[in-house]
Amino acid sequence: MKYLHIPYYLRLRDSLAKKIEEGSLLPHTKLPSERDLKDAYDINRVTVRQALMQLESEGLIYRLIRRGWYVSPPRLFYDPTKSVSFMDNVRAQGRVPETVILSKTEMAASDWVNRTMDIAVGAPVYLLRRRRLIDGRAVLVEHINVNPVLCPGLLDLPLECSLTETLKEQYGIKISRTVINMYPAPLDSTQAEELQVVAGAPCLYLTRASYDQHDNIVEFDQEFWRHDVLEISMEVNNA
Amino acid sequence: MKYLHIPYYLRLRDSLAKKIEEGSLLPHTKLPSERDLKDAYDINRVTVRQALMQLESEGLIYRLIRRGWYVSPPRLFYDPTKSVSFMDNVRAQGRVPETVILSKTEMAASDWVNRTMDIAVGAPVYLLRRRRLIDGRAVLVEHINVNPVLCPGLLDLPLECSLTETLKEQYGIKISRTVINMYPAPLDSTQAEELQVVAGAPCLYLTRASYDQHDNIVEFDQEFWRHDVLEISMEVNNA
DNA sequence: GTATTTTTCTGGTATAGACCAGATTTGAAT
DNA sequence: ATTCAAATCTGGTCTATACCAGAAAAATAC
């Protein structure tokens, strides 16, 4: 005997998903409040939230903390094998990028920086933290660790645009090799707040180690993307 | 005035996460039942489930439907830029791969197959469905569509191993170009059941279009990975 | 008109309880 | 000893209710 009953929370999920897919709910539209949905579908608010969280995990809707639930915009294509900057990539897909500097400091290298960047513990390292937005919506925060030996005074230059370009034009540094890692991870409370997301929400954690033409590690970047923003897309030639 | 109280569900999350990270709970260990955790931490079962689902979304634990919660094994590194087969990749990381054929059929090409594979609607296409396991745990199901014109009789050959190798050795087909896409998506009820996961659970959806030396599309692969299995890892040379 | 306070609305956390379906274990019948 | 049925345990779904903190809107004071 098979279980055939479709749970209420999946019915609401399907109902909303259908409206989103057929376009009667456009990106960034606010959904009715949880209490309104509860009344409209005559189910408990807990069940409503189960449906909403399901849709959130699928990337169909997102929430602004204590403000409401909204329809997600389409994902941004990202090709890790191409070194296209965030700004260029977003613009190329007809959308509007933005960068906000959260902080820029010179710090003493920690043990972790020592291991990942081969900088002596206590030696100076630049830490740049930025938030980046697409069409006005915060989509990632990044922590960029840079070796100041290779680019002294970097923090006094404009940092809203592509770092890679600045490194090339101002310091003659050409990134020749990049090591990328990514997997889902939870956001800690600081970054969650900066993305206006509940603490612990899943994100796509992406690290990028960039090496110059002499194989020095120039930059170690940690990116915390909202989990529903990216679609990884790439072409590989099997030589 | 800032909100400082740490919610109960996050405390339980942290408590379990700590035990997992420090190794006092080993991979594939069964956690106490939800009702036992509820009693042990003196909180409501709903709150316990909130913590467990949080850990699940982080990939630290997984569940076998109606059987319990278990500690997740480490992620498998996967480099999409290298064409290493599943079997080889799993073995290279000291783990035991397994493949189960779910079905193999010759079908009439659908509209969707026509668009993705450039095969006339109604013309034959091979569909191979496999489940793959690591250390006895189902981690993905895949739907492989193959153009039979390029490899007649393929379905009568052994299909448990690397398809790419079979295509090369039996038909002289060399995959020269691959287009890969991936993003999180929900599992439909069929695949969810095949992975012993609740319907709608998030997975990593990965598609792979493989072209031969004459740029014919040989194979279109849809892979549904458990969301907590992979860590994408790659090195890019910026020529 | 503008600033400030108050109220209302929103989602976030939490409790207590209930019943279901499937997996597992127990116990009884053979 | 083996088979089969019953009891138990597990997670899955759902209701009703409560209070909190922060965001937004409305009302008030200046």
UniProtKB/TrEMBL annotation, chains A, B:
<dbReference type="InterPro" id="IPR050679">
    <property type="entry name" value="Bact_HTH_transcr_reg"/>
</dbReference>
<keyword id="KW-0238">DNA-binding</keyword>
<dbReference type="GO" id="GO:0045892">
    <property type="term" value="P:negative regulation of DNA-templated transcription"/>
</dbReference>
<dbReference type="GO" id="GO:0003700">
    <property type="term" value="F:DNA-binding transcription factor activity"/>
</dbReference>
<dbReference type="GO" id="GO:0003677">
    <property type="term" value="F:DNA binding"/>
</dbReference>
<dbReference type="InterPro" id="IPR000524">
    <property type="entry name" value="Tscrpt_reg_HTH_GntR"/>
</dbReference>
<dbReference type="InterPro" id="IPR011663">
    <property type="entry name" value="UTRA"/>
</dbReference>
<dbReference type="InterPro" id="IPR028978">
    <property type="entry name" value="Chorismate_lyase_/UTRA_dom_sf"/>
</dbReference>
<feature type="domain" description="HTH gntR-type">
    <location>
        <begin position="6"/>
        <end position="74"/>
    </location>
</feature>
<dbReference type="Pfam" id="PF00392">
    <property type="entry name" value="GntR"/>
</dbReference>
<keyword id="KW-0805">Transcription regulation</keyword>
<protein>
    <submittedName>
        <fullName>UTRA domain-containing protein</fullName>
    </submittedName>
</protein>
<dbReference type="InterPro" id="IPR036388">
    <property type="entry name" value="WH-like_DNA-bd_sf"/>
</dbReference>
<dbReference type="InterPro" id="IPR036390">
    <property type="entry name" value="WH_DNA-bd_sf"/>
</dbReference>
<dbReference type="Pfam" id="PF07702">
    <property type="entry name" value="UTRA"/>
</dbReference>
<keyword id="KW-0804">Transcription</keyword>
